[in-house]
C-alpha cells in the first residue's frame, strides 16, 4: 500500500518573505569555509613549548604530510612539525564538521590515531570535544574549535 503523500526528510525550515518554506542548510559543500577555526596545539617532540596551527574549519579537512618525492594533497600539512619522524602518514586522517559536531576518522594510517590515549579504528568517525588530546602516530596535539573573527 502506497502512502498518500511522499515521505519528507527531517529538515529544518525557514519561512521566506512570501510565506513559503525553504530548507535551511545544515552543512556546507566540501571546500566552503565555516565561521570557525580549528586550532591544533602541537606538542614539540623534542620538548619545549607547543606550536599552534590554526585553520578555517570546513566540512572536511584532510590531515597528513607532504613529501617532495610523492606529493599528496592535504588540507593540514604536518610536515613542518617533524611528521615524517613521528609516524604521520601522507593522508593520515580527516576532520569532519557537521551540525555543530567535530569528528575525526583515521584514513588507514600506518601508525594509527589515538584520542585521549585510546586507539581508534580506521574508517570509523569519532566525536571530538574541545581539549581532547589527539595523536597521529606519535605526534601529539590538543584540539580546539573557536569562533573565527570577522
Descriptive account of the structure:
By secondary structure, the chain is mainly β. Helix content is 0%, strand content 45%. It has strands at 13-15, 21-23, 33-42, 51-58, 60-64, 76-77, 91-98, 101-106, 113-115, 118-119, 125-128, 133-136, 139-147. It has a 6-stranded antiparallel sheet with strand order 4-3-13-12-9-10, with no helix packed on it. A 5-stranded mixed sheet has the order 6-5-7-8-11, with no helix packed on it. A two-stranded antiparallel sheet has the order 1-2. The termini are far apart. The model is unreliable at 1-30 (pLDDT under 50).
Summarize the structure.
The protein is mainly beta and about 150 residues long. It is built from no helices and 13 strands.
Proportion of residues in helical segments: under 10%
Task: Identify the overall geometry.
Answer: globular
The end-to-end span amounts to: 53 Å
* Rg estimate, integer Å: 19 Å
Strand content: 35-45%
Q: Find the count of extended strands (DSSP E, 2+ residues).
A: 13
Uncertain stretches of 5 or more adjacent residues: 1-30
Mean pLDDT: 81
Strand order of the largest sheet: 4-3-13-12-9-10
Structural class: mainly beta
